[in-house]
Amino acid sequence: MKKWMFLLPVILFVISCTEDIKFNNPAFQTLKDNVFWRAQNYKAYVAGDGTVTVEGYLGYEKITLTTASPAVGSYVLGIDDISKGYYINDLPEKKSEFSTGTDQGNGQITITEYNADNKTISGTFKFTAINLNEDDAEKPKITFTEGVFYKVPLTSIP
Fold first, then answer.
1. Phi, psi (rounded to 5 degrees) for 27
2. What's the CA gap between 70 and 81, in Å, rounded?
3. Which helix (H) or strand (E) holds 8?
4. DSSP-assigned beta bridge partners for residue 122
5. Is residue 36 exposed (0-12), middle (13-18) or buried (19+ Cβ within 10 Å)?
6. Chain segment 50-101, per-residue pLDDT in tens
7. Per the confidence metrics, is the pTM higher than 0.90?
């Protein structure tokens, strides 16, 4: 009888434990200058010329990633203006724009999955973008690391 009295609370404890799982599906997140940044809204689209753009929005902030195509692979940033990373903060008091481009900034966008049937795109990114306002000596660049976009809905633009 003593064994059952001991076992009953243990069984009740195990049964009462629940695990709340929150899925991040789809997702767009990164570390912006080593501070966690997660988009509230995101979208991706394929332009008529075949380039792919993935965007993540958080309030007044927007990160835009552009690659030459939706093909699985890595796209190096800072070489040309086709594959690039771009960040803008439209808050009037903190308005700022940062971008990679030809011989400007550096980084990489890797597309890990392009699902044409479900119209989603997934991948990783990291880049350092240069402030487009050259007079802003306070913040000459911005860095994004450990960036992930996962199953972002993809649409076509005519």
1. -155, 155
2. 16
3. helix 2-16
4. 113
5. exposed
6. 899 999 999 999 999 999 999 999 999 999 999 999 999 998 888 899 999 9
7. no
